[in-house]
Amino acid sequence: MKKLILFFSFLFLCNCKQNNLPEPIVISFENQKLLKRYNWDLLDASTSSYNMLIYDRNIVFIQFVDVNDKRTIENFDVLQKFYDDYKTKIEFIIAVDSKYQTKVKKLVKDNNYTFPYSFPLSPFPNGKINKDSLPHTFVVSKKARIVSETKGLANWDSKNFRKLIDGLIKQ
User: DSSP letters along 51-70, please?
Assistant: First the structure.
């Protein structure tokens, strides 16, 4: 019985680990900025180039990550769950520095992640991303408004964040 209690306690603590992350930051309407332009060149995992213009008038989840940061990598499980639930409803760009192509491909393969990742070929439309603020995440609405900007880790599986995304989908 004692082993069973310890086992369930362990499972509970493991599940709470990700839930202790802060909520993603939602920007009030009056403080939302427009994405300056959709013209952003990227390279996908199969090394095909594409431009973010293909996502014009779509909801886009953009996350810049550092694959050398252990906590960021641990957060990929939460990101994967969010991706699994929304992959047919919104667009995803997980941006990784191109010098880490081999490392991220191995990481994704070893952990069976299916979220798409890309390597930027040109600067982000709204300016340079500070490497000290990674992960750095934006959610862009269908009308090119930045409705969420979060620097650092966040719980992408939170109820409030899902409400935001569901509301954007209905617009």
Answer: EGGGGTTS-EEEEEE-TT-H
Residue 20 structure tokens: 């202790």
**Using an 8 Å Cβ cutoff, are 43 and 98 in contact?**
yes
DSSP-based three-state secondary structure for 38: coil
- Amino acid letter at 149? E
Cα–Cα distance for residue pair 168/58, rounded to 1 Å: 10
157 Cβ partners below 8 Å, 6+ apart?
Answer: 18, 78, 81, 82
Q: What is the mean pLDDT of the chain?
A: 85
pLDDT digits (tens, 9 = 90+) for 50-83: 988 888 889 999 999 998 888 888 889 999 999 9
- pTM across the whole model: 0.84
Residues 122-138: pLDDT tens digits?
Answer: 888 877 777 777 899 99
Q: Match 């209905």 to its residue by tokens.
A: 170
Cβ(145)–Cβ(138) below 8 Å = no
